[in-house]
Amino acid sequence: MIRQLIFSTLLLCLGTLCAAEDAYAQTVQYFPQLADGGGYVTTWYFTGLGSGSVVTLELFQANGTPLTLATNRGTANIFTFSVDAAGELSIRSQGLPFAVQVGWARVTSSQPIGATEVFQFLFGGQVISQAGVLASDPTAIATLLVSVDGGRGRNTGFALANLALTSNPVTFTLYNQTGTPVATTTRVLAPQTQTAQFVPELPGFASFTSFEGTLGISALSRFSVVGLVLDGLELSTLPTLPGRIQGRTSNTVTVLGVADIYLAGMPAGFTFV
Q1: Does residue 253 carry a pLDDT above 50?
Q2: From the centroid of its chain, how far is CA 191?
């Protein structure tokens, strides 16, 4: 009887561990920019990484409301499908609207998958420019490279999506090549909204039409961001670099047992919702 009880307890524990493992296997990935219409199309590619997965692709307008797109897999703002263990599947927008629609996307999968997004600009059915980008990890601090040359038609921009369910003050600081701050501004983004603009379009940044340096971004809640470079008609993406963390000497910090480890390394005032 005792042996049977021990065996049943072991099975219960193993079942609990497996359930916990399955719960943590779910992943969420973010793409802070999508474009459709006016010559632009966006394609998402999903790849199985060893186990089958149920995948949900959710599309949002810049104002945070659902974005309905016509795609090669139907017209909707939410797409749910299965990806085989070593399989691949893609969804491509149709580029039907005359005016460009922009927004952002969230990908949720029951198991870890590979996800890639490709922007294309078409003219007369021919690809003029395209750029691929991996999902952008949520963060509250980030650094982007900046290269602007108005005379040559080169400009650097960014697309940033506020992932929080609350308003999020986002501060942008421009640094020159010596690391000196030369401009700063703060924008408050409403819940789950997105902004996409060139660096000189930020308030107080208009004079930087010939500039090379970096853009520091910090916020009180997590966001997803990607850098964009437009050189003539050629569009490319830039990787998101880690945010600058002010150097400090060693100190002692008392952490309560109820403290949330999710807040470690975040800026002062950062909240997790």
Answers
A1: no
A2: 15
